[in-house]
Amino acid sequence: MGIGTHGVYLWNVRPFALLSSLTYDTCEFGDMVDIVWAPGRDVVFVVLAHGYIYEIAVQRREPVLEYAFATQHYYARGPGEEHGIIGQSLVQQRTYRLPLGTEDAVVCAGAGPKHMLIATRAKVYRVTWTGALAGSIDIDSVYTGASIVQLDALDDEELFVFGDGTVRIASAGSVRALGTGSTTCVAYSAIAGMVAVGTSEGAVELYGCTDSGLEHVAHAEFQHGHSAVAALRWTGDGAAVASAHKSGHVVVRSALGYELNVTHIAEPAEYLAWTGMRLVAAAARRAAVLGFARAGSGGLCLHTDDKVMVHLNGAWRVDHAPTSVINGGVRVAAVGDGGVAVAGTRGMAVRLGGRWRTARAADALECTALAWSGSHVVVACVDHARDGAAQLMFWAPRSLDLPVESVELDAPAAAVSAHGAVVMAVSTRGVLHEIVAVAADTALHVTRRRTVDLAAAGIDPRRVRAVHWVPGAQAARAAVLVVEGTRLRVVANGSVRDVGRAEYVTVSGVNVGGMHSAVWWFDGSRLAAALVSLDDFMAGGAHALAAERARMHVAADFYPLAIATERGAVEGIDQDAAGGPCSGLAQLPVRARLFLHAVLALMLRTAEADALMYAACFEHRACFSPAMEMLLHDALEHDELPRTLRLLASFDTFDDIVVHAARTVEAAAWPRLFAEIGGGAARVFARCLRRGRLRTAAQCLLIVHTMEPPSVAERCILALLAQAAKTQDRDLCVDVLRFLRRTAAADSATHAIYARLLQSAH
């Protein structure tokens, strides 16, 4: 929706079409200055220069545009609208007037949770959403250096931006400054609890709400030249913020400042607006609509409003969602062992065995969250067939006629997660419902384990974006991890404690019951993990999140989407390597980084016995040997050899790891390594030969040749040649001879061996 000088316009974005408009011929009340939405209502307020306010309702109608295309033409229909665009009309309801002086005029307006703010040259008026005047404040009492250009309402504070770049925050009679004086615009997300501040240099400063006020969270530099920020806009759920620059660049960042996408448009945008997963970047006479994808839960999964992309076997699989039953487009998606599930404003579907299956009576389900619990899909929804009852439904993907089980909630769920058989859901009233779902043959047994009032503990229910179980043995009193906006908070024994800032959180565990687990979170620049040791697990798990000694950090040069525990790696997407905007989603490069060696290094410093049990869980996986080599390599650099070698010596691949790691470091480090092992390189070589690890023995030849006396090196070379000939390994014989030829010119001992071999061959 937008305004002109004398008109209000409502557009449908996909396909782009004007749905309704109100135009006014007279300018008796002045030009239209600003437009604000009433929170939670289909009502907008248009503010005019002379202090008049139009209250305009948005009303739904029957489809107004029918498509003349078959439904398989995805580009020709909006999501969930295969029969046409659902019409909406603008209807003016009331007109209000502010008590302005003859010389005063409205400059700008903003929206708050309780009232709208309307700024004139002299005052800022607070007007309730029913049109009543709730008070005013003189602008001179806030700042006198320049005129006001923008304002916004935080929870209990009011934010003012002035023409000289100054920002002031007013609260309960006090005024304080924010920023450095180069501000061009601001945007506030009540859901994320974040304030974005655009600057004349092009950077975006991010501030987060705390119990004591705003704190600076991140500085997001503009990496594409020098261009001032012209407009900012948060997504409706506070997950991302877009900035429009005067150079024509539109940058989308995550809530904590990670740059997700940059697009250059022909005409620099002056206004931004999000509609679903599309960003409208509008100038005075032209608008660009940019499409984006969002991350699903449970793995490498992205979705737009009509497509789902899952990364399988090294490539993206793109599926068109069944928008005929997913009304309003795909809003949430989750991938699990049983397939991929999607849900829209109404409706739910699961892709299984190469085809989509839709839930019966799907149009009655208003879905708010999805998760996979084993082979069942957990759907948090409002069932309009049952008078709007809030439900947590468990569906078997192969039979979506009826849910297998359902649990009634006190209010619609804001967040859902599954950890093995434990399913957690937080309602919009701040009540945590913890449910145990155990599959037995073809049946599913669901029991409610406990409920916890998170709101009473200090959690703001409207900002809950995710909830997770903190691994611990005390199930009845287990700690709960909550993402409140961008604050990562742990609730235990009725109290709440901050852990840090986070926008992506997951829990990965190995061993029975997750006894060796890690809580992972991404803070916008690096990936952090808190390791839950066996002692922490037995004590309930919460202590691990408070102990800095049990934390590790992994530098992330890509955006993390999943923790692949079975591969010991973090996986994500690298937009920078895509070479362009998100239009080529199927070509987005996937990146992975091993974390197993970093976890073990931290465990060795804090709980060596835990490290052995944790490493044993990965012994027969492909990631084990590379991770152990990286662990030994790091131990050589940081002088932590003794305990690292004690861990490695517990596994059969010890010699392979030592030799491969030694070949990746400088020869100057070899004496220290093999002195710690004991017996020298010749002893390791002999052990490899005895155990039949001939390839490892061949790699060890260079180390033996460098460290041992010529007579020892000669004996080792001949022994390896004899063993290779005995096993008829021709390739290995060639490799050893090639090694002799390369070293013969510089070493008399190997030259003699090489000469004797050539003579015997002739």
Task: Please describe what this structure looks like.
With 762 residues, the chain is an alpha+beta fold. The protein has 14 helices and 53 strands. The strands form 14 sheets. The chain has a 4-stranded antiparallel β-sheet with strand order 4-5-6-7, with no helix packed on it. A 4-stranded antiparallel β-sheet has the order 8-9-10-11, with no helix packed on it. The longest helix is centred in the C-terminal third of the chain and has 17 residues, at 710-726.
Question: How many individual β-strands?
Answer: 53
Low-confidence stretches: 66-83, 577-584
Structural class: alpha+beta
Largest sheet composition? 4 strands, antiparallel
Q: How much strand?
A: 35-45%
Number of helices: 14
Helix percentage: 10-25%
Provide key terms for this protein.
762 residues, alpha+beta, four-stranded antiparallel beta sheet, 14 helices, 53 strands
Present the secondary structure layout.
Elements: E1 2-3, E2 7-12, E3 17-23, E4 32-37, E5 43-48, E6 52-65, E7 85-97, E8 106-111, E9 115-120, E10 123-128, E11 133-138, E12 148-153, E13 158-162, E14 167-171, E15 174-178, E16 183-189, E17 194-199, E18 204-210, E19 213-220, E20 229-234, E21 240-245, E22 249-254, E23 259-264, E24 271-275, E25 278-282, E26 287-291, E27 294-295, E28 301-303, E29 307-312, E30 315-320, E31 332-336, E32 339-343, E33 348-352, E34 355-358, E35 365-373, E36 376-383, E37 389-395, E38 405-408, E39 413-419, E40 422-427, E41 431-440, E42 443-453, H1 454-457, E43 464-469, E44 480-484, E45 487-492, E46 495-501, E47 504-510, E48 516-522, E49 526-532, H2 534-539, H3 542-546, E50 551-555, E51 559-564, E52 569-573, E53 590-594, H4 596-606, H5 608-616, H6 624-638, H7 641-648, H8 654-662, H9 670-677, H10 680-690, H11 694-707, H12 710-726, H13 730-744, H14 748-761
Antiparallel strand pairs: 1-2, 2-3, 4-5, 5-6, 6-7, 8-9, 9-10, 10-11, 12-13, 13-14, 14-15, 16-17, 17-18, 18-19, 20-21, 21-22, 22-23, 24-25, 25-26, 27-28, 28-29, 29-30, 31-32, 32-33, 33-34, 35-36, 36-37, 37-38, 39-40, 40-41, 41-42, 43-44, 44-45, 45-46, 47-48, 48-49, 49-50, 51-52, 52-53
Helix pairs in contact: 4-5, 4-6, 6-7, 6-8, 8-11, 10-11, 10-12, 11-12, 11-13, 12-13, 13-14
